[in-house]
Amino acid sequence: MTFLAKDSQFRIPSVWIPRIFLYSFVFTGLIVPSVYESFLSKLWTVLFNSRLYRFSGFETLETVLCYIIIEPFYTYKFGQNPDLRIDVRGSKQKASGSERPKIPKMRRPSKRMGEMFIYIAPLLMMDFTMIKKFAGVPVADIRQSGGYSLPPVNSSSGDISSSFLLPTVHNFTLNSPLQLTRALPTEPPSSRRLLLELMTSFFIYDALFFFIHIAFHRIKFLARIHMPHHTHTEMHPQVTNKLSVAERLSLVLFANFALNIIGSHVLTRSAFVPLFIYLLVEVHSGLDLEWSYDKLIPFGWGAGSRVHAAHHRTGEGAFAPFFTWWDTGLEWIDDRQETKSR
Fold first, then answer.
1. Which residues contact 94 (CB under 8 A, 6 or more apart)?
2. Cβ–Cβ < 8 Å for 48, 64
3. Nearest Cα to 133, choosing from 263, 262, 41, 44?
4. Cβ-count burial of 83 within 10 angstroms (0-12 exposed, 13-18 middle, 19+ buried)?
5. Which of 59, 102, 138, 280 has a Cα-to-Cα distance from 183 of 20 to 30 A?
6. Element of type H or E holding 4
7. pLDDT per residue over 140-158, tens digit each?
8. Is the pLDDT of residue 86 over 80?
9. Predicted confidence (pLDDT) per residue in 36-77, tens digit
10. Which helix (H) or strand (E) holds 150?
11. Is the pTM of this model over 0.85?
12. 120 and 128 in contact (C-beta within 8 Å)?
């Protein structure tokens, strides 16, 4: 889609419309955070007083809800737009003049309840047994949410570490049998903090998954675990969740680590989830969309669905899920080694 100027001599690619909105939002959020201060303050007041938002399993529920909204949207688009399907292009089926290439075998939502349970069960188990620790929350509040009594005045925090990287098990008692609530910070983040934390956490996650993904391909016993993710006739949105329990947990744990290591605000975590699910589904969508994220991000930094589809076909390259930096570095190292071996 393009937009014509009045003299019909200039064609403005429609991708510039979301680019302008995205760049303007990021620029103002970073440079002039006061623009969003009132909105974030009101939003945080609502969330802070919400029992649902304080529920320990909120992030798991948010993840599942985002997935069951985003993935079916891409699946529908996949079925209705054969001309956008990446793996079909150039195939004999398309060359034969068939109006609509055959859709690969996909499961109906009613047949995927077991898949949802397998995903949710280990996450809820952790939600109900581990204390949630967030930046800006006093240790005393963390203790109370975890079923521990308050330490004596002027004493240390006792057996509860304030470190986000050190897990602490809930204190199981008759009065507090499960970890059902999470203590929240009283103040919202600025838009600058939120955006910087989002960008940093995605950068860290992309790096972590790049290395574990290489291991899943090059270490034999891990490759056997990962192989089912590549066993499909054509890339399509449901491939996103075609993972073993170990792979699903690695996605969640790496995302948590990327957020925890920088002490991200809870609101940053809440914004991270839908963006994370959107990116995961899009790179596995098998669709070449006009407004795909890799076309919005400058300098070819975004990997995108076409690059990831090529990885699924060959099993080589594009090990980082969302961006291209790490794979570019790996290619440079491989080229150097190849040059030296000649």
1. 82, 88, 101
2. no
3. 263
4. exposed
5. 280
6. strand 2-4
7. 899 899 998 876 555 554 5
8. yes
9. 999 999 999 999 999 999 999 999 999 999 999 999 999 999
10. none
11. yes
12. no
